[in-house]
Amino acid sequence: MTASSRGLAVGDLWNDGRISAVITNLNAVPSLVVNSGTQLQPLDCHSHRRYKIDRDGIGARISVKVGARTLVDEVRSGSSYNSSSDMRVHFGLGSSTRSTPYRFAGPMGSPNVLTT
Q: How many CB atoms lie within 10 A of CB 45?
């Protein structure tokens, strides 16, 4: 596919744990790139809905322990020109069935230890 594209937004469009992409094209309809691979068991953290730090939780840091590994990500916004991706933080658990308690640190550094 050849097109002049201007923006990219990624996210879990159907809430099934698979990340897909929408590409905005110049003078053409948007392109949808669907992730049709095997679904793993993701952990989906809705930090901006669970905690009263700010409206969207932008800048919050989330740590998840899966087996012996600790995975870390931040809530972010404004990831592409003229588009915005899903602000939910996704962690792939792979073959694990669950994660252990995780840390949530708000933008101002207020840490909380939580259970899933």
A: 23
